[in-house]
Specification:
Elements (H helix, E strand, L loop, with lengths): L1 H36 L1 H21 L3 H16 L3 H17 L3 H17 L3 H8 L9 H20 L4 H21 L4 H13 L3 H12 L5 H17 L3 H17 L7 H11 L3 H18 L2 H61 L2 H52 L3 H9 L2 H21 L3 H7 L17 H10 L5 H8 L3 H12 L9 H6 L2
Helix pairs in contact: 1-12, 2-3, 3-4, 4-5, 5-6, 5-7, 6-7, 7-8, 8-9, 9-10, 9-11, 10-11, 11-12, 12-13, 13-14, 14-15, 21-22
Length: 530
């Protein structure tokens, strides 16, 4: 009995732990989705830091300080934009040539190898590293050297298909990892490297407590990401998919918040969520990874993504197509149901109405008929009144035409041919009416868009700003673009509306476009969004 109870408790505990892990996994993936949507903000934050250091570099006068600032810029660009990292290596070389120091020469060589490794130039990176003799290096450069050459062989291992060559590179990676462990002081970095070694040697269970202890100590974001990623490797070795996804997501979240573009966690995570049946999220992750790899010029990461991008893309497209088909089916079903309900409602209403009518007595029916007759009589009177008014309007209009005809007849009978032609040809009335029409248009438009003139001028250069003259509401240029704001973009319609030639309208539009602050080709689209 006790054994059965113990078994039930054990199963229940496992079930609760599983549910808790799934909830944690879902929450971290939602945070990751949000971080991807905020990539532009994180990029701007990183660019702001880079801009500040560049400004300090421009104002620096000491070559040692300049060398240091170039090193900071190299580190900021290394996993963000490899080409720019190469540029600051060259700047470091220049400043070091002004005050040569052997340790700096070695640091620059390792910098060069590291960025070449990020760019996928592994042979060139190794050639650079093989010119360095480790026994001649001081402690900081020696650690840097072993970290870089181990990473380089690790990348070559990941990027090699031939199993024999892969095994060779793997042994080299292990060799340099062991060398690194010998020189690293006790601390977080050494424990992470040690845990990595233990995982690869089949001791994942022993590595996990070490890494969890590392995470309780003070770490910078890069070290924390390294620890999280190593934990994901440990759970991968243990076949614990939920925990592997959780720690990959934690790693990717740090990468995105820091606007790192060369990374492995997110694309690996994309493959795993795809295998768990979430192609939409997988597509989002792999698409983000591909864009970042291209922007950074990280060839290995780009190749890794392109291996499984077509598979995820096809699954995503198939899911969208299926959702579209289901949407159409659902729409048709709802439409059919709505039609059925309308017909049913009409049938019930008709039946109830008939029943109500049958219950009414003859007296009430007669009263309704009397009321209906009175209503019809009233309606007839209203029609008579409106017909009379209509006829009166017609007669009045005929009288005005007759008066105008007689005035012209008098001029003709008096042989005042010149006055007759002048009256016929005079455009004063039309001009005045057109002026009044434009004034009404301007007033109505500015009631709809009271800030139009101010917002429109914000799109123009200082010397191109337009202000109406005293007494004007809108001038010709503003009126043309007011029409464009209302959606009238056809030049023929604008010309007809304003009474100008087509060439005049084209000249006005071209003249104003050339004064735009931003993209001249998109100027009118900007106006339509005011």
């Amino acid at each position: 009995m006790r054994s059965i109870l113990f078994l039930i408790l054990f199963i229940a505990e496992g079930w609760f732990i599983s549910i808790s892990a799934q909830d944690s996994e879902q929450r971290i993936l939602e945070q990751l989705d949000k971080a991807i949507s905020q990539k532009e903000k994180f990029k701007n934050d990183r660019e702001a830091v880079i801009s500040q250091i560049k400004q300090r570099l421009n104002y620096a006068t000491d070559n040692t300080e300049r060398y240091k600032l170039c090193g900071e810029l190299f580190n900021l660009y290394l996993h963000y934009q490899a080409d720019s990292a190469c540029h600051y290596i060259r700047r470091k070389e220049y400043y070091n040539s002004l005050q040569p120091q052997p340790e700096r020469d070695i640091e620059i060589s390792i910098n060069r190898a590291e960025v070449r490794g990020v760019m996928g130039m592994y042979n060139e990176a190794l050639t650079e590293l093989q010119t360095i003799h480790p026994h001649e290096l001081s402690s900081p450069n020696l650690e840097y050297y072993y970290f870089t050459i181990r990473a380089c062989y690790g990348w070559m291992t990941d990027n090699t298909v031939d199993l024999h060559v892969k095994q060779t590179y793997l042994k080299k990676t292990e060799l340099y990892r062991d060398s690194l462990l010998k020189i690293l002081p006790q601390g977080s970095n050494r424990n992470i490297v040690l845990a990595e070694k233990m995982i690869l040697s089949g001791q994942a269970d022993q590595a996990i407590p070490i890494l969890n202890k590392v995470l309780t100590s003070p770490l910078d974001m890069q070290e924390k990401a390294y620890a999280y990623y190593t934990l994901s490797l440990a759970y991968e070795a243990k076949k614990d998919t939920d925990m592997e996804i959780y720690y990959l997501a934690q790693t990717a979240l740090i990468d995105l918040n820091a606007s790192v573009r060369e990374y492995a966690a997110l694309q690996k995570l994309a493959r795993m969520v795809y295998q768990q049946g979430d192609p939409e999220r997988a597509y989002n992750y792999v698409n983000c990874s591909m864009k970042d790899a291209v922007a950074c010029n990280a060839r290995l990461r780009f190749l890794e993504v392109t291996e499984f991008y077509p598979i995820i893309d096809k699954a995503y497209s198939d899911k969208k197509a299926q959702e579209k088909r289901l949407g159409r089916i659902l729409t048709l079903s709802i439409t059919g149901l709505a039609v059925y309900l309308i017909l049913l409602a009409f049938y019930l209403y008709h039946g109830l109405r008939k029943l109500s009518l049958m219950r009414k007595n003859l007296s009430k029916s007669n009263k309704e008929l009397v009321a209906l007759n009175q209503q019809l009589q009233q309606t007839g009177k209203i029609k008579e009144v409106y017909i009379a008014r209509y006829l009166d309007r017609c007669v009045s209009y005929l009288d005005k035409l007759e008066q105008y005809r007689r005035s012209l007849e008098k001029l003709a009978m008096a042989s005042r041919i010149e006055d007759l032609f002048k009256a016929i040809r005079s455009a004063d009335f039309l001009r005045e009416e057109r002026k009044n029409f434009y004034n009404e248009f301007d007033k109505s438009f500015l009631e709809l868009f009271p800030n139009f003139i101010h917002d429109f001028n914000n799109l123009l250069n200082e010397d191109g700003k337009i202000e109406p003259k005293p007494g004007e509401i809108l001038n010709t240029e503003l009126r043309i673009f007011a029409l464009i704001r209302l959606g009238v973009t056809d030049a023929n319609r604008i010309a007809h509306f304003l009474g100008y030639s087509l060439a005049t309208v084209y000249n006005y539009r071209s003249k104003i476009r050339n004064k735009a602050k931003g993209d001249k080709d998109n100027f009118e689209q900007e106006v339509m969004r005011l």
